[in-house]
Each structure stands twice: as C-alpha cells, then as structure tokens.
Design brief:
The structure holds two protein chains of two kinds. By secondary structure, chain A is mostly helical. Chain A has helices at 7-27, 30-40, 43-61, 90-94, 147-177, 184-204, 220-256, 258-273, 276-293, 301-319, 322-335, 339-346, 351-388, 399-406, 418-445, 447-455; strands at 2-4, 65-69, 83-89, 118-121, 127-130. In chain A, a hairpin with a 5-residue loop joins strand 4 and strand 5 (127-130). Chain B has helices at residues 2-30, 33-41, 48-57, 74-77, 80-85, 102-137, 142-155, 159-173, 188-219, 222-229, 234-255, 266-272, 277-286, 290-318. The chains are: A mainly alpha, B mainly alpha. Chains A and B meet through helix 8, helix 9, helix 13 and helix 15 of A and helix 1, helix 2, helix 7, helix 8 and helix 9 of B.
C-alpha cells in the first residue's frame, strides 16, 4: 500500500484548515457569534448543517487516496513491489468494495439478471439468447423467487444495526450536549436517518446492486457517492479562488476611488459582458489542448483528470468574481464615508491599517453570504458544464458525467431511469441543504433583510 | 436623452476593445495557431507541412501583431490580430474552421432561438409575478413559509432534470408533442410548446422567490401603511401601490437580458434539437471551432452592453423622477 497525494487532496485538506481558521476568527467577534446563534437556534439550520457536514465528511474520506500493492508475479526480482494503477480511497474501503463489483452492462435496481439479452451456451453446447444472470447480485439465493423475501429480511437486519449505531452516536452526544440551548434533537434525527440509510446501503450492496448498474456495468449507488467529492470540492475551491480577487479589487476600488475605481469597474464590466459559459468553455478547451499536447506531464490517468479538474476550478473562480466585486465596492464606498474611517484618517492611520482593521471586518458578512450562495450554484453548474463537454474529465466520477452518460437512456424501452435518478437525488439533497442553509445565513447576517423582518 | 445614449455608446467602445483583446490573448497568444492546427488535425501523424497547410487555409499563417514583410498600412493589416479580431468590429466574422460563413449562419439561426427564448421570457415573468403576488397575499402565514420552501426546492433541482423529465413525461409518456425537432412552417407551436413550458417551470423557483422579496420590501414602505390606514383593500394595495413601485427593481434584472434572448439557450436548444444560436455554440465548442466561439463571444458582449443601456432607458419610463442627462 502506498499513499498517494493528489493536488486536489492537498487542497481539500488545506481548505478545511483555512475555513476552520476563518470561522474561528469570525467567532471571536461577539456580534458574529450572535448571528451564528440565530442560524443554529432554528431546527432547519441544524438539519441542513448536519447534512452539509455529512457530505463534507464523505468528501474528506474520499480524498485519502492510496495505491494497493500488486501481488508479486513469479520471476519478478525479490523485494520489489509494484503498485496498482487503480487509486483507492478510504471511502472505497468503508463501502466494502462496492465499486469493485462490475457487471457487463445495465441492470435494474435489485435485479438478478442483466438488462440486455446475450448469446449463451446451454449444457449441450447449443447457443441461445437470454438475459444472463448478474455476477454479483443475488448469488447467495438458491431460487430467484426468494429475492424479495431476502431483501426484506436483510433490510430489517440492516435497519436494526443502523438503529443501534444511531442510538450509540446520539447517546454519546447527548451526554455532552443535553444542556445546550440549540435544538440538537433535529440534528440527531437527521444523523439517525443518515446512519440508517448508510448501513442499509452498504450491507445491501454486498448482495445486490441497490441502484442498478450503468452502461459500463458500474454500480450506480457507488458512482453517485463518488460524485460527492467532486461536487463539494468544486463548490468550495472555485469560490475560494474567486474571493481574494473579488475582495481585494472591490475594497481597493471603493476605498481609493479615482483611477483605481475606474480601472476595477472597467475590468469587471468587460468580464461580465462576455457570456460566462462561452468564456468558461473557451478557457477549458484551451487547457484541454495544452494537456493533449503535453501528455508526458502526468504519470497516471487520474493525475491528468485531477489537473483538468483543478483547471476548471481555477477558470470558474477567475471568471466569476465580478458580481461579488461589485457588491464589495458598493459597501466599501458606503463604509469609507462613515465617521470612524474619517476619524482614522484624521489620526493619520495608514491606508493599509484602515483597510485591514476598519473596512475588511465590515464586509465579511457579504463574503460569507456569497460563499454559501455560490456553493450550490457551482454544484449545479458542474452538471451543466459536464453535459456541454467542458466539465470534469470523463474518467473522474461526477454527477455531471453520470447525467451526460445517461441522457439517451430514457428513450430505451423499458426505460433506464436509475442512473439519472441516482445522480439527481444525491445532487438535489446537497444543493437543497446548501440553499436552505444559505437562506438562514443571509437572514441572520444581512442587516437589510433583518430590518425588513422586524418591521413586519 | 439622445445625448445620453450616444455617450453610453461611446463608453461601450473601450469595453468592446477589452473583450476583443481578451479573446485574442486567449485564442492566439496562450494557445498558438500551431497548437490549434495540431488539435484540429488530430494528435498523431501531424507533419509540419500539414500544419502549415491548415494555417494557410484558415488564414493563420500571418504574424500576430506586426508584419515586417509588408509595406505601409499592410504591416498592421496583414496580421492575425487585424484579420481575426479587429474585423469583428465591422461585423465581419469571417469563415468558420469548417469553411462556412459565420455571418449568414448567425443571421439564419437567431430566429429559431428567439422563437423559443422570447415566449419563455414573457410567459416566465408573467407566471413568476402572479405566483409571487399570490404568496405575498398570504404573507407571514404557514402557506407563505411552505411556498418559500417549495421555491428553494424548485431552485435546487438541476436544469437538466427539468428538461429530461419534461421530455419523458410530456413527449414520451403522454405523447402530446414531438420529443425534439423544429419546423418553422408546419405547426411550429407544436415544437415550441415543450421547450417553453420546461423553461418557464425551471425558472419559477428562483424567479418567484426573487419577486416575493421585492414585493415584501415595498410592503414595508410608509405609503403602504398610509394606504392601509386610509382603508384601501389588500388587493388594491397589492395591485395599485406595491406592483407599480416594485417595477423599478424588477426592470433592473429583467431588461438587461432582453437583447441576449437572441443568443438562445445552450441546453434547451441542444436537447430539443432547435437549430438556434445556442446549439450553434454547443456544436462549435464540441468541434473546437474557435472562429465561431470568438464571434459568439463578441456578439454576446455587444448584446449585454445594449441590455445595460436599455435598462437605463427603461428606468426613465418606469420612474418619472429619474432623468437621464
């Protein structure tokens, strides 16, 4: 076993550190703490935060990569170990080899037979056409008729285990948090639901394909779970690349005014006048040409996919800073007219210090709201970009690639619905949680929406 | 008014020059014509002669900025920058990599795009405003809270899902309209119905939620309280007081996209097989036809700038207090 650190793995852990530091610093301010308290004192806030953390946790587990050592081949020199070209993550191990059970092609959820007929030979050597039985589904059954009884029995057992784990997890938290003023019970119910369905999914997929298999015979449930890392990472990384550009330019434009303001305004008007999707498509295509011309940069396929993924995050970040920049410029213009900034000027405080101490802390609520709002938009955009063909590398698991690969399946008879449903469901839960959470964050932090509410 | 428009048009020139320079840098400096030739001709078996021939055929065999072999003005005009980028200002888009005239393609393809985008836009706004008004009437009740939740849920569904689901349900299961295709002469409404319906439904979540916020902001104003104190009915307040006043923020978001309707939608057009500009762009992206992408970037930015000017003009119409000068 050899650990493998992809660039995106490094970044995702760096990101966690940066975000934790950022939120801890924010929490030092009593007013910000009050806002967060407002967010988490609602049940909805607790539920959505739990769901988001589950997604982030899965993404982190999926970022601990390693390459398995291959079995030594006879005749190879002693002591030398070769590593598999396939990259495994800790999440793959926890899912119990869910991604290693390939079939030949499509199969329906819980099916025992393949979706397409195939030439087979019977005992006498004669060829006939029928649906071949799947290699990894229902192999333990003596008779196909027992399938649904078996599914029910196994589900009941799995749910019992799930309930047990949930009770343990909740009891542990209850011991520490029972005096907390926040509605933890909402979070606990969500946790129990997540734990139960996770235990059920893992234990069922040892015997069946819970969400069927796709065209290449890969398990759809596994593919959908693997898409989580891509979605979460893209949503956060692209925003984090965009933030420094938007914040520094916006603050400088609003504070220094004059020609700096003119230049920044010119830059963002120019950038926002180009149709976003075309700019992104053009940049991605250019990067693709670059990769194609330099194939020797990457030793394994996944590294190439990773490079393209990072380039996509970078491009999305660089092309999308104009709206946040405009907001921050307007807010800075307002703040720099206020008494305390004028007073700081009069005392001869340096520009740098005024910007860092007086302006920046007062625009952080805009940064925070944008960060949460953009996250869900980016997750949705990924699917669209992959569909257009300028998104994630086709070798990398992502919801966009799943949808793209399955778009013509609905015209089949009978309909292949499970690939699309799997991708859409996992995407929908994440985006819905993020959207609801961002609404709460905005209500708590945006002074305008707060005033509007108290007046009604 | 006239002087204002002229001034705005003059301001637009540096922005267009910026767009032009940016695309030029992206397409010719970051990615040299040689790279483009190699990727167009295929990765393997590319001879230097083939690259030169491809460059000559598509007019990329000139120097980037300055042609030292030409005399006088030719030193500036016989360059890639002049022939490929400056000529866009004269709406001379040249030929695509596959040899078709881009200007004719664009002028024939913008009408199907508009045929889908315009009804989607008009019906969409009408439906969103109606839904938002209905929700505002029940403000601060349980119905209102659930409506907001439904809006957020609708927003969280991928656009691709709306399209695929609509095609499956309406066209395949119920067989009401053809799944895809476009015909300008025979019953064009049959082909337009589903794309427009999908576009409208996909927009309800974000649209109605936004209008609701705007209406609520207006309903906190003093004039609404005055009207209520004078005994005006809620319906009258909603339609005679709130709606006209909320028109200004609505216009900011809405008018700016009107010119861009010509560009159509990438996804809708490719799924429904509509031969508009959206699917034109998508084909160009997929076949890596940089000439078309360049032309579309330029057209798109012009339409956006026209949209910004139209927004300003529409303010004076909606709010008599404003005057442009």
């Amino acid at each position: 076993m050899k650990p493998l650190l992809l660039w995106s793995d490094l970044l995702i852990f760096l990101l966690v550190v940066v975000l934790t530091v950022f939120f801890l610093r924010l929490a030092r301010d009593p007013q910000t703490r009050e806002h967060w308290r407002e967010v988490f004192s609602t049940r909805l806030g607790m539920v959505t935060m739990t769901l988001i953390l589950v997604y982030v946790g899965i993404a982190l587990l999926d970022s601990l990569h390693f390459r398995r050592a291959l079995e030594p081949v006879a005749g190879s020199p002693e002591g030398e170990v070769f590593y598999s070209n396939k990259v495994t993550s800790v999440l793959d191990v926890m899912l119990g080899g869910m991604g290693e059970r390939f079939e030949r092609t499509y199969s329906a959820p819980f099916a025992l037979d393949s979706f397409e007929k195939q030439d087979m030979k019977d005992d006498n050597g004669l060829t006939y056409r029928d649906f071949p039985p799947l290699e990894h589904a229902g192999r333990h059954l003596d008779h196909p008729g027992e399938r649904w009884d078996d599914v029910l029995a196994k589900s009941a057992a799995a749910l019992l285990w799930g309930a047990l784990f949930s009770v343990l997890a909740i009891a542990l938290q209850w011991a520490f948090l029972r005096r907390s003023p926040f509605p933890w019970h909402a979070s606990w119910i969500t946790q129990a639901a997540v734990i139960c369905s996770a235990v059920w999914l893992v234990s069922m997929s040892r015997h069946y394909h819970v969400l069927g298999t796709d065209l290449g015979g890969a398990d759809v449930a596994y593919q959908s779970i693997k898409g989580i890392r891509t979605g979460v990472l893209l949503g956060t990384l692209a925003t984090l690349i965009m933030l420094p550009i938007a914040v520094s330019l916006g603050v400088m434009a609003g504070y220094f005014k004059g020609w700096v303001d003119d230049v920044v305004q010119y830059l963002y008007t120019t950038l926002s006048s180009i149709p976003g999707i075309l700019l992104i498509a053009a940049s991605v295509l250019l990067f693709q040409v670059y990769i194609d011309l330099h194939p020797d940069f990457f030793s394994i396929g996944l590294e190439k996919a990773d490079a393209r993924f990072l380039a996509l995050c970078f491009i999305l970040g660089v092309t999308s800073w104009s709206s946040l920049c405009r907001l921050i410029r307007a807010e800075t213009l307002k703040i720099s007219q206020l008494g305390y900034v004028q007073a700081a000027h009069a005392f001869g405080v340096s520009h740098h210090r005024i910007l860092v101490r007086h302006i920046l802390p007062n625009v952080t609520h805009i940064i925070l709201i944008t960060f949460v709002l953009d996250f869900s938009a980016l997750v949705l955009a990924e699917a669209v970009l992959s569909y257009i063909g300028v998104g994630i590398d086709p070798n990398m698991a992502s919801w966009g690639n799943m949808i793209n690969g399955a778009r013509s399946e609905l015209s089949r008879e009978p309909v292949v619905w499970w690939t699309l449903s799997g991708a859409f469901f996992f995407m929908f839960v994440l985006v819905l949680a993020a959207n609801l959470f961002s609404d709460l964050v905005r209500d708590a932090f945006d002074p305008r929406s707060g005033a509007g509410r108290s007046a009604t | 008014m006239f002087a204002y428009i002229v001034r705005r048009l003059v301001y637009a020139i540096p922005i267009l020059i910026g767009v032009n320079l940016l695309t030029f840098i992206l397409f010719f400096v970051v990615n040299s014509p040689d790279d483009m030739a190699v990727s167009q001709l295929g990765q393997k078996y590319v001879t230097p002669e083939a690259v030169q021939a491809w460059k000559r055929k598509n007019g990329y065999d000139l120097p980037l900025f300055l042609n030292s072999q030409e005399q006088g003005a030719g030193a500036l005009t016989e360059t890639i920058f002049f022939t490929k980028s400056v000529k866009l200002f004269a709406f001379d888009f040249g030929r695509s990599e596959s040899g078709r005239d881009i200007t004719t393609d664009v002028s024939t393809r913008m009408w199907p795009s508009l045929a889908v985008a315009l009804p989607t836009f008009v019906v969409g706004i009408w439906v969103n405003i109606c839904v938002a008004l209905m929700v505002v009437m029940f403000h601060a009740t349980r119905l209102d809270r659930w409506a907001v939740f439904v809006f957020v849920a609708l927003m969280s569904i991928s656009y691709l899902f709306y399209i695929i689901g609509g095609q499956y349900l309406v066209a395949k299961t119920w067989k009401l309209v053809p799944i895809s295709g476009f015909n300008g002469e025979i019953q064009p409404w049959k082909f337009l119905l589903l794309p427009v319906l999908v576009g409208v439904i996909a927009g309800i979540g974000a649209g109605a939620r936004w209008y609701r916020t705007l209406f609520l902001e207006e309903s906190n104003q003093d004039y609404v309280r005055t009207a209520r104190a004078k005994g005006a009915s809620e319906i009258r307040i909603l339609f005679r007081h709130i709606l006209p006043n909320a028109l200004i923020p609505i216009l900011t978001g809405v008018v700016v996209v009107i010119p861009s309707l010509f560009m159509g939608g990438l996804l809708i057009e490719s799924f429904f097989g509509i031969p508009g500009l959206g699917s034109y762009m998508l084909d160009a992206i997929n076949s890596q036809d940089f000439a078309i992408v360049r032309a579309m970037v330029f057209i798109g930015s012009i339409l956006y700038i026209v949209g910004l000017i139209l927004t300003d003009i529409s303010y004076t119409w909606a709010d008599p207090r404003l005057r442009l000068d």
